């Protein structure tokens, strides 16, 4: 564990939200977030509080309403096109359209930032793709069409695609939304192993709070009023988890370090 | 990779089918010429009759080349549109570009009855038809491009294209209503589509433009593959969506406009050929599909043209009808077979 600490992602006075007909709608203001390398970070918060918007703004899918995002100390507003594709891989919630690509071809799309104008895979590219598939244990389905896969398999394929992109950061927006408990645990464990075995930082938004509490290195809590980050013990000390949900329904127990449903 | 080997087999089979279609197309027609003489003529040797020389070199060969260009051009446009709009119903006709071309030709043929007095002895030649239909298609393209600047949503672009198509069709209807019967007939004959009206000069201009578009479209193979996962994924992999959109739209419009200009509005091919190719190759990878669509489109249109000229008789049927009558059942059959298999 002697790897050097290094800041891979930073936001300065970031305002997030979206444009509507009636003007700008802010979801959060003045976010100053710092993410280090080799961390599994869980973004927690209620529905509609702006988790996806935050992740989209960080990944430049949405424009910030104010402030700046720095990836590897470079301001995204000034970064060359193609810079972010080599720094950040995404796994989105949106369903991918029907198609007839094989698992190998889909994962190989992750190599696009590195391939030539025709998208020709070099020997090194093919190696990266194979390695990514091994890491998430999908080498056995490499020739299947992605339409034939189960939700759990498909999610692993999408993670492999992001891995093949060979980026320092991987962002996953609710990666376990359609999965049963078995596959949810599998994905979380997989992400944890990936962080441990590579130098990557993985940021996920999730509603699997108890699982997240057990496995993540760091938490970003987003509520209507504030943004709090830190590791488990720091946040327990600040009583931060209590602010996440209404106390009448769900309560955080600092002893077991888990949430409990109030009945 | 073992996957590419199986594609190689299919490609070989298709190329064989293509050459069969090409030579069948050359050898059949209202005058029957033995296949041996066809080869002799093609390799600059003497055929048994001088007139055969003329028929093959100046009539059948340009027609076969036109069929080849039309088929592959429409197929490729359709494929790009389907991927770009993520809609299996998209084709070169949906953006209203060929409707624009029709409008251009309609204004020329039908509109001259209004302006006849002013223009005096103006006669309608092949080139003036080409200019008219190109102008029509480019005007619609221009309107679509302006709309695209304001709209980000690809689905809305599709609908706007359909609206432009409807407007053009409506104007053509109005023009037809006020036109003389002979002018109307001339326009309807144009709308049947025709592959055999071009001389070598026209075929070379046509071919040049099609090849030019294909070369540019090679650059879209890579971004289109990542667009298979949707726009957001494509952007995250560094795809320049704006540039890709312009390349795809301008090239497909140019292809559709030019094809409609030289051969009339050939329906169905642009929609069906990509589906046929996807069924044959069972892949969405554009590096495989783009050449596949080129060959399948060319072969299909050569076969349709062979059927259309009713071998042995002096009649030839409108190519536009043949492509649908023979092509549609094939696609239906293939789709049903795929579902039950």
**Tally of strands of chain B:** 0
In terms of quaternary structure, what is this?
heterodimer
Contiguous runs where pLDDT drops below 50 for at least 5 residues of chain B: none
Structural class of chain A: alpha/beta
Blueprint of the fold:
The complex is a heterodimer of chains A (263) and B (341).
Chain A: E1 7-20, E2 23-31, E3 34-36, E4 40-45, H1 51-58, E5 66-71, E6 74-75, E7 88-91, H2 103-109, H3 123-135, H4 151-164, E8 169-173, H5 181-197, E9 201-205, H6 209-215, E10 218-222, E11 227-230, H7 232-237, E12 250-253, E13 258-261
Parallel strand pairs in A: 4-9, 4-10, 7-8, 8-9
Antiparallel strand pairs in A: 1-2, 1-3, 1-5, 5-6, 10-11, 12-13
Chain B: H1 2-27, H2 35-42, H3 50-84, H4 97-109, H5 112-119, H6 126-150, H7 154-177, H8 181-192, H9 200-217, H10 221-227, H11 231-236, H12 241-263, H13 269-281, H14 286-308, H15 319-340
Task: Please outline what is shown here.
The complex is a heterodimer of chains A (263) and B (341). Chain A has 263 residues and is of the alpha/beta class.
